[in-house]
Amino acid sequence: MFSSFRPHRHDVLLAVVGLSGGMLLWLLGLHLQTHRVFTAPWVSLVPLVVASGLELLRRTSPQTGLVVGTLALIADQLTVGNLATILMFTDLVYSAVLYGKPSAARRIPVTTFLIMVVVTIGFLAWFRTPQSLLIGVATGMISFGPALTGASVRNHRDAAETARLHAEQTALLAEMDRAQAVTAERTRMARELHDVVANHLSAIAVHSTAALSIDKPATSRDALGVIRENSVAGLAEMRRLIKLLRAGGSSEPAASPTLASLDALVEQARTNAASSGLTCTFEDTREEREPLPAPVELAAYRIVQESLTNALKHAAPGPVEVRLDRAGQVLTIEVSSVIGEHPGPRAPGSGAGLVGMRERVALLGGTIEAGPSVTGDGARIWRVRAELPVTEGTSRT
Fold first, then answer.
1. 330-338 and 380-389 as β-strands: parallel, antiparallel, unpaired?
2. How many other β-carbons are positioned within 10 Å of the β-carbon of residue 357?
3. What CA–CA distances, in Å, run from 295 to 58, 230, 268?
4. pTM of this prediction?
């Protein structure tokens, strides 16, 4: 209960040293003044004991110590006086500024300065001698001087604490930035791995299941051909990504897929989806065919790739249409497939593909819609439509 009021060991040491020094001065008869109200030397020990006891409160109750210490100093002036009492009072003034409340730390230096000025002017008017200025100087030395020192030390301590907190905040922000960068890089890697591998693995899963479930040599042979083709392509993509990760970005970057590769991508999807009754077509209605910024072309390619993969997994027999168009500064990608009962084996989906597409579009400041729709002739289709700004300045990467 009283542990918070336990004096600091340095304060105990100051109190012991002050009391011992004052007792030694008293035993030696070294007094500061004579002809006072209380001429008996032992009376000067009372303010001495009080001042030394107040040293125990210099950190826990500095303002109380200063108030009582001021009274002890006044009492000491009514006796023969003791230098140790005055020295301990200066420490109480210093402690009140250093350890007290901020308001007290601002008020005490001003108050002690005014006291010094009033005392100097008062004694100069009373004695009318230049020597009376020494009284004002002595008053400043035991009051204003310690208060000014305490304010200076407190300002330096507060500045150091502010600098420490600023350094901690800077380190925390740096760690947050690093964690966000790591998270963003992991998300990008997961998105890239999913996009480049899922297409091949989905085709392998569908055709391997078909080869196992349909007892026809021709069907099995075709399925194994598709499986081999996708295995080789998927392995090449994995090797490319592993090489890039091992290089840590220090080697020359590998070429990213572009819109010029969409023909080959759709042709590969057409081969993979033939056994499921899907017919993949590609229509590019752009009037301007100049290369677009690399992030835009990569995002468009991955959106088409993921949409074709989803069609292979879930679409009913019928057309899978890929359309590419550009109006002004907006590139439009649209992929549609028929909604219905999917024939033959079905590959499981995780939903990560749609999330990856939305992330890519959001990073470029575009928009994307993915969901069921109805055509003009009443057919139900699954449509993915993305609009990407083609200016590189819109990217938020």
1. antiparallel
2. 25
3. 66, 25, 23
4. 0.52
DSSP secondary-structure letter at 317?
S
Domains and CATH numbers, the chain: 3-171 (no CATH), 255-397 (3.30.565.10)
Query: Which of 41, 115, 48, 108 is closest to 75 using CA atoms?
Result: 48
Residue 227 CA to residue 208 CA, distance in Å, equals 7
- pLDDT digit string, tens, across residues 84-97: 999 999 999 999 99
Q: What's the pLDDT tens digit per position in 236-271?
A: 777 766 666 666 544 444 557 888 888 888 888 888
CA-CA-CA-CA torsion for 192, 197, 200, 204, nearest 10 degrees?
Answer: -150
Res. 397: pLDDT tops 50: no
What values do phi and psi take at 369, rounded to 5? -130, 135
Please give the average per-residue pLDDT across 290-300, as a whole number. 87
Q: How far is CA 272 from the centre of its chain?
A: 47
Rounded CA separation 219/36 (Å)? 123
Number of residues that this document lists for the chain: 397
